[in-house]
Amino acid sequence: MSASILDGIKVAEKVRELVASDVSEWVQKGNRAPKLQVVLVGSNPASHSYVNAKTKACNEVGVESDTLVLPDTISHNELEEVIYSYNADINTDGILVQLPLPTHIPQLAAIEAIDHRKDVDGFHPMNVGRLTIGQPSFKPCPPAGILELLDYYSIPTKGKHAVVIGASNIVGTPMSVLLSRESGGAKSTVTICHKFTRDITRHTIDADILIVAAGSPGLITGPMVKEGVVVIDVGINRVADHNREKGYRLTGDCDFDSVSKKASWITPVPGGVGPMTVAMLMKNTLLAAKKSLYPGK
Q1: H/E stretch holding 27
Q2: Which of 16, 76, 148, 283 is deepest in the core (most CB within 10 A)?
């Protein structure tokens, strides 16, 4: 068998169309357009590329955006003062501090400096905590995008065994929560694996849904999965390829060729989870403008 493709580009376009329609209706009612403020520290090429993609998506859906580029020599305290100024700005609905940050800046402290009501990335402990207990919150964009993909392609999750590889605060941990929730969630039985998991194949071979977010190219191979598995590859890794003009190619955490021969569905890299992540950011920014998750605040 050969896997069908979970087309993140196609589904993300449909999500953006819905967001654009909602933004237009919101503005027609006399409201100002939602505004996303991006804070970018340093000159990391990948970070600049991601920010450009987010800015382009904002333009497409009618969300105003502004990017403040700061030198990588900025201190932790100076960055926090910048964030506080946007917290206080009534015309700023969403704040996104592009990660990763320079090593001298504590990442969690920067995230905590953001007003949780403007935390459209969904990384603030307040949003993470509310997510965990099933309360309204901004959902982290990659996991939210994955659920949107599964829903669009009518892939059943109730009672399925979902295995998540990677326990990061950005993907793995919130993904496991969203998959396992009974009320408003995917209603799956979830196993979460990480670098200390022994005999990882024992878990992956049993997965009905396998979500891989380990940042390790080619980690999962065909012999590690069963026939008919649904595979979501979150990894985006640069692998040297001297046959390419840029000198590298993008690859996921799965060996696509071998895994796709056994999977029923699989996301490509690129073109899978990445576009969905940006689309869900647009959705969160509109929610922030409407103050629908934290009304009256």
Answers
A1: helix 8-28
A2: 283
